Amino acid sequence: MHRAANATVDWKALREDFAILHERVRGRPLLYLDNAATTQKPRHVLDVLRDYYEHSNANVHRGLHELSSRATEAYENARRRVAEYLGAASADEIVFTRGTTEGINLVAQAWGGKFIRAGDVILLTEMEHHSNLVPWQLLAERSGARLRFVPVKDDGTLALDKLDSLLTNEVKLFAFTHVSNSLGTINPVRQLTQKARAVGALTLVDGAQGGGHLPVDVRALGCDFYVISGHKMCAPTGIGALYARAAVLESIPPWQGGGEMIVSVSLEKSVFKKAPHRFEAGTPNIAGAIGLAAAIDYIEEIGREAIFEHDAQLTSYAIERMSELPGMRLLGPAGERGAIVGFVMDAAHPHDLTTFADQQGLALRGGHHCNQPLMRRFRVPGTTRASFYFYNTKEEIDRMIDILRDAVRFFS
Prior knowledge:
This protein has about 400 residues and is of the alpha/beta class.
């Protein structure tokens, strides 16, 4: 891996592992600052995917031939690698999913369908992504449960002083994001899980923006569920993982039925496998799981502490430079935050600003970011969002500032 003699990371050398960063867009060098939506994939991950398809491609668990054995071993090794990465007690606590959204839906439908009843309360926050809101709305409609929400303060942090009045014995689940995808807020996960446990509630943490950016130890955090998306941490799209504490996972009935998740089937009744395999009906995304393990290897070689520190420096620099621009409103906490900066400029609507940036080769994200209630909370139609990862540089931020300054002149 790309380390200098003093054991620090050579961040610019890492960029050479990402061929797409040399792409040109509309005749200009690509400036990719949309990492909260999806990250780019290093050559190592692409090579591992190609090697699997060229040398080991077969279905898992069911075959007695050599290729099936190779594929099964690689797939289950990937499960163990994810477990290590998240600090799970066992690989049996890891269920492969299509991503964060599917992981939350699995919990809402399978666990929620069994344990949530009329009158129960599901506690969420006002900063949740739609994927950690809509599944609970649907569950509440089916079950007669009620939803409560922890408010978000003007500074982008949770109103924790309201928590004791909201987190009562009626609450059966407290689901919240680790890092806000619009504000960059890093929530105090351990504090929240401890308070939930004190009233007998389970906790689910949306780790979409946390899994690839900062150290995660689910046992130290004390959560019952933690979900990640591979494509937000250098892995392929369509793969993710649900961590569930073993005792909880064993209590959940199957979610989907089909091949692979059964022990025996008669015309009238089926006997299901133990977790996690009873939650992986049908042919899984084998290559995706292997690619996720390869991405984890790549990230771990760099070091998540180093990535978090690098991202924090970039974000702080970006906020400092963006404050120079006229008519700029930054959302989110002033202190420590994830590698996300959402902003509104008087010069233009976020959609227009993002379109202008694209003409200059700059990839930003404009809109509500699947956070419509949060946008209404801050009385904005949406924001423009710049989001960073370890392959971004201060020079790229300087280019972004020049482009935004040009936008002010263009729209004025």
